[in-house]
Amino acid sequence: MQQNAQTVYEKQTKKASTLDAFFVAVFLLLFCINPAQAKNCSSSKLGSPEKAQVKWVYDGDTLLLKDKRKIRVIGIDTPEVKHHKQKSQAYAAKAREALRELLKRFNYHIILRYGAEKRDRYSRDLAHVYLPDGTNIANWLLQRGYAKSMPIPPNIALARCYKIAEQKAQQQHLRIWRYQENQIKTATTLSPRYTGYIRLEARVKQLKHYKKSLIIMLDSNSRRTLRIKIKKKNLNYFKTLNLNKLRNKTIIVTGILKSHYGKRTIYVNYPTQLQILQKKGSHSKSSKAPVKNNAMIKWSLKK
Questions:
Q1: By C-alpha distance, which of 229, 238, 255 is closest to 302?
Q2: 3 partner at 20 to 30 Å CA-CA among 14, 85, 126, 185?
Q3: Where does the chain hold its CATH 2.40.50.90 domain(s)?
Q4: What is the pLDDT of residues 86-116, one digit of tens each?
Q5: What global pTM score does this model have?
């Protein structure tokens, strides 16, 4: 029985790897990202470089500088370390230690490059962080499976590059991507009580346009509504897309699932959070790796 279970797991892992490898290839092709850019994740759209030195590493995505400024690294989310009553998440301590060791090699010297928005609601400075040799630490953490990509407008200059790094780690099932909670779930089997980070496969039923947002309704076996929400202020990033083509398509959406008054909502900020599949049935149950529709990829991620 145990051997059969292992065989099933290996088959599912192989299918997921095939799909993730395809996603990576498509991103590189569509956005013409050269190997150097994919390695370091840099852009001329970022602010001028500013030298700084790290005093303390809170976790994989938050730093304290010697001048007492707190830096929140743009574009990623790493596991939370233990604080107050919250328990430490898987790989939180290892992600922090890995970053500390990386910074130590350069005597904790870094280079900051700010995005369009320079401060968050917690008064932390928002910046892309580089080492003196040009290494982008967010990209470094993503490639090794210590972090998840998290595009938050307007700081999305490197969102696509970060997505590539994340997908490579997913393909190899590195660190946080080994855990069941981070695997692709299906809408038809999703627990009605589930909340938090999710990679969800579902079929789009309909789109509803409201004054302040676009709502994408998803198929679900639960009585509780399951939907995607794109705020009006972020629709500009999707302006070249014909979102109506999503209807009746099977998609994989990545985001934070929240539940409020019986409505389960996944918030989407940027096109890299949507992937469109052309297939029948579920990714987890299909006998063959799903076929990706190149045209759909192009319009779903086109700038």
A1: 238
A2: 185
A3: 50-174
A4: 888 999 999 999 999 999 999 999 999 999 9
A5: 0.82
